[in-house]
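Support request, please re-run this one:
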Amino acid sequence: IGNVHYLESIQTITTRAPYSTAEMKGAATRPTGGVLGGVVFHHPAHPDHLYGPKEESELDFYPAWPLVRGLGKYDKDKRRDEMECSRKEIVAHSTLSPGVLLLNCQHRVTYGYTILDCCESPRSVFRVLATRFPDGEMPEFIVYDNSCHPSVYCMSREPALFSGTSFLIYRLHSANHKSCSRTLYLKEYDADPDMKSINSQSCEQTNARLRHINHVLPFLKLHRFKKTLALFLSENQ
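Re-run finished. Output below.
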């Protein structure tokens, strides 16, 4: 019965979508997709027509991470993710930006940053990751102080893209989360020497250094703001 259902499912797929179960003969006829369960996909997992145009924002600075796709439109965007967990305190200013979203490695090397035009949210993290990482090249671990929310946000919109990514909460911020799964806590993996050696506070340490210029940046025009911040980060790693 299992084999019959399996074959029926393949036949149903081939009649409703541009897939093929035929064997590939030579590179000339090789499709651009992949093979899953004996079914050859003739289209990539993330076809371009499902995404918006690639529009570089003036508020982004990621010199080594060019855009690879635009943002998609997701049915999940029509609903709000409600989670019973700690919520970050939102501090807004009438004229100034809420801040800067930094992306660092554990060695405090800054890959880039986004100047926030609204309060920090899971969408801020998702927008950078989903538009700048090709399929199969998403980071294995993403350590963030509020990882419970981005993990749900990302997996409910791009499960294939984030299937190999683990979202983890800073050791310092673990106490602020009351109802999150223990699998999200980085400290739960300290039995592994490699995981214990991860510096989960690299962004916090970089943010602390930014206090030396936080009295200057708010008064600069955007192009000078970006150059000054990039130069400061490159000299303080």
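The beta strands are 19-20, 35-36, 39-41, 60-61, 99-104, 110-116, 141-144, 166-169. The helical segments are 2-16, 122-132, 148-155, 193-196, 202-210, 222-235.
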